[in-house]
Structures are given as structure tokens and as C-alpha cells.
Design goal:
Number of helices: 21
Helix content: 55-70%
Distance between the termini: 20 Å
Order of helices and strands: HHHHHHHHHHHHHHHHHHHHH
Number of strands: 0
Length: 427
């Protein structure tokens, strides 16, 4: 326990130093820096249009305050959901989960860029953690409404009777949008997402296998083939784990880890949907491998102190610090060292907010404007060093998926509860 207390103290100190030394947007965002007033695209379901129309008439100061409050509650919900899902007990362990969230770069990236995926991730984590049908229905409804792909892991609950709740959430979302945009609204929504995916194809913002392959210099057709092959493999692995698992914990973890492989486009902030899965994996049968994976997908290469804080927080979360856990921490430290060196030696261009400085056609849609902005900012094309960093994140997802497959024949919650209760290893 003393070692875990020391690790938690180190994590808190490193996070405090990072907050004090660096501006949050620079320290905690793994995206290229945003200039003040930068314009970003947003794709959402049509049922949310009245909400955004009403928000557009609210004074900016009031709207900004409300938006910040939403994200604060989303962060608290994500921490609570991750703690519930991982069966974390006691105030100390909950504090460790909070420290891990503050050091987890995708969470900070979602907060600094205003990415609504953190709201969907919090809803999915709470639904998975509470494990009741009302919570599953409400959580999946909110996740479907905000960012549907964040709810992919919840489909593992179908085996324990969660199908009615998921069906209710899906039907409510569909009918709510149909009243505003017609019954064919999914086609228009899909067309918008495809247009945005094409506008970002090959950019440094994308963490899909195809985009990473293009970043490493692969031709577009070969990159697309690699993306399809890895996407199918990840989907098959996630479904296999969900079907084999004795409980839905491994299935939820596998579904979350498959997200960057199966989604058409995936940003750094999207990895916040893997936070609850990461915390649960740290308290499973392979804490060393899980710790290494969490560093690969959650470290901020531009702020090494936060990476060290994440390692310390993960060690504090481990039920017991053992040789294999320390080995995972050492491997994570090597990954952090390599990634930080690569990010510092090959920095990306600063976001130039090209929409405000270029003459653009009046009839261009948001996808076309976004593509022009990315091209003008130098964020399209091959960036091998950055592609390697994104490849590390995908490798972390694959490693977490492998740990989920390894524990799919074991009730992870039962193992953790017994180990914590008797104070010894049972597996």
C-alpha cells in the first residue's frame, strides 16, 4: 500500500507541475495547436438542430459557461463510470482513477478541443458500470445521440439481456430524428460523415489504419486495403471476445478497442472512449501488458511529465505492484521516451486557421472548407514521424484487445473482488 501511495503522490505532483508550467491547450492536447477563434467542423444528428439554433442566440459568455459546465460534468461522469466499470473500491482508488483521467491525453484533448465524444464516452462508461437496464437504456441513448461509435462496447451487454434497452435507445434516436429530418435521415447523416472522412483522408488528425499507412508513404489504394483488412480483423476479434466472454466486461473492452480500426475516421480525442476499458484492464489478469498499452495510446508525447504521471497513476491503480506490473511500467517508460523524442524532434505545424485568411467559394460545404484549411495548415500528406506516433496508439489498442481476449474466459470482476478481499493472488 505504501508503494501505491507513493505512486499516487508522484502522479499528483507531476500533474500539478504540468498545470503550473504549461498552458492547458499546449500541455494536454495531443492535437496540433489551435489558434484563437479557430473554426472546426461538427457533424451531428439532425434532431440536435433546434438545440444548436437556440444556443446560437444565447450570449457567447453564457453559452461558453454552459458548455464548460457540460464538459466538467462529462469528465466527472467518465471518472465515475470508469470506477464503477472497473469495480474500483475506496476513496484512494477513486482518486487514482481521477489522476489517471487528468494525465490521459485523449481526455484532455477532448476537453481542450471541445470534442463531444467525451460526453458519449461518459454515458457509455456509466451505462456499462451501473449494469442495469434503465442505465443501459439512458446511457446508450445519450451516446447514440452525441457520438454513436462511442457506444460500440455496449453491444456486449446483449448477452445479459441488454438488447431491449439498446433497441429502445436506437428507436428513440431514429424516431426523434425522423420527426425533424424524415425517415431517410441516416442516409444524409452517413453522407455527411463520409464527406468529412474524405476531407481528412491522410491527414495527421486521423488515427485510422488507412490514414497511418498514408502517413508512412503508402499509396492511397494500398492504404485503403490495409485499413479494410485490419478493420475486418479487429471486428472479428471483438465479436469473438464478446461471444466467448463469461461476463460483458471483456466484450465492452474489446468493442472499445476496435473503434479506431472499424470507424471511418477517428481523432485523438476519440480514444477517451477507451478510458474506462483501460482502467478495467489495469485491474485484470495482465496489468503489466495493460499498463504498457495505456501508455502507448494515452500518453501525451508533447508533455513527458504527464506521461510519467500516467505511468505513476496506473501503478497506483494496480491491485498489487508486482514484477510484471513493474515490467509493464518500464516498457511504458521506454515507449514514452521514444514517443516524446520523436514528437519533439519532428514537431507538427501550428494550426493556422486558414478559413479566416483564405478566399473561399461561397457555395463550398463544411467538408470542402475543412479540406482547404487542413491543406493550407500543412496537416495533409505524408508525415512519417507523426504516423509512427499514431501507430503506437493503434498498437496500444491492439494490445488491450489481446488482453481482453486472454481474460474472456474469466469473470474479471469476480477475480478483482476476490483478490482485493483476501489480499492474495488467486490467478
Amino acid at each position: 500500500m505504501k508503494a501505491r501511495l507513493a505512486c499516487a503522490g508522484c502522479a499528483a505532483l507531476l500533474i500539478a507541475v504540468s498545470f503550473a508550467q504549461l498552458h492547458p491547450a499546449a500541455a494536454f492536447s495531443s492535437e496540433p495547436m489551435l489558434s484563437p477563434g479557430a473554426m472546426l467542423p461538427f457533424a451531428g444528428v439532425r434532431a440536435s438542430t433546434p438545440l444548436w439554433r437556440w444556443v446560437s442566440h444565447v450570449p457567447f459568455a453564457h453559452a461558453a459557461l454552459a458548455w464548460e459546465a457540460i464538459f466538467v460534468f462529462a469528465l466527472l461522469g467518465l471518472i465515475a463510470g470508469a470506477a464503477l466499470f472497473a469495480r474500483v473500491r475506496g476513496l484512494f482508488d477513486i482518486v487514482c482513477v481521477a489522476l489517471a483521467a487528468l494525465a490521459f491525453a485523449p481526455v484532455a484533448s477532448a476537453l481542450t478541443t471541445g470534442a463531444t465524444v467525451i460526453v458519449a464516452a461518459a454515458a457509455a462508461a456509466l451505462a456499462a458500470g451501473l449494469r442495469t437496464l434503465p442505465a443501459l437504456g439512458a446511457g446508450s441513448f445519450l451516446a447514440f445521440a452525441v457520438q454513436p461509435n462511442a457506444a460500440l462496447g455496449l453491444f456486449a451487454s446483449v448477452r445479459r439481456g441488454g438488447a431491449p434497452a439498446l433497441a429502445f435507445a436506437f428507436a428513440a434516436i431514429y424516431l426523434g430524428n425522423a420527426l425533424i429530418a424524415g425517415f431517410a435521415w441516416p442516409l444524409f447523416y452517413a453522407r455527411t460523415l463520409v464527406a468529412l472522412a474524405r476531407s481528412e483522408g491522410g491527414s495527421v488528425l486521423q488515427f485510422t489504419p488507412a490514414a497511418i499507412a498514408q502517413g508512412l508513404g503508402a499509396p492511397p489504394l494500398l492504404a485503403a486495403a490495409i485499413g479494410v483488412a485490419l478493420g475486418l480483423a479487429a471486428a472479428a476479434a471483438a465479436v469473438t471476445v464478446a461471444l466467448r466472454a463469461r461476463d460483458d466486461c471483456s466484450g465492452f473492452v474489446a468493442g472499445c478497442c476496435a473503434l479506431p480500426f472499424v470507424c471511418g475516421f477517428f481523432h485523438a480525442a476519440g480514444f477517451s472512449a477507451l478510458f474506462a476499458a483501460s482502467i478495467a484492464s489495469l485491474r485484470g489478469r495482465s496489468p503489466g501488458a495493460a499498463l504498457c498499452a495505456v501508455i502507448a495510446l494515452g500518453a501525451n508525447w508533447q508533455a513527458p511529465l504527464l506521461g510519467l504521471a500516467l505511468i505513476a497513476a496506473c501503478l497506483a491503480l494496480a491491485p498489487r505492484i508486482e514484477i510484471r506490473t513493474l515490467a509493464g511500467a518500464a516498457a511504458g517508460a521506454l515507449i514514452l521516451t521514444f514517443g516524446s523524442w520523436l514528437a519533439i524532434a519532428h514537431p507538427l505545424h501550428e494550426w493556422t486557421d486558414a478559413v479566416r485568411s483564405l478566399s473561399l467559394p461561397a457555395n463550398a460545404n463544411s467538408a470542402a472548407l475543412w479540406h482547404i484549411e487542413l491543406a493550407h495548415s500543412g496537416l495533409l500528406g505524408a508525415h512519417p514521424a507523426n504516423a509512427l506516433l499514431r501507430l503506437l496508439a493503434l498498437g496500444g489498442c491492439a494490445l488491450l484487445l489481446a488482453t481482453a481476449a486472454r481474460t474472456s474466459d474469466v469473470d474479471v470482476h469476480h477475480v478483482v473482488e476476490r483478490r482485493d478481499a483476501v489480499g492474495m493472488e488467486v490467478l
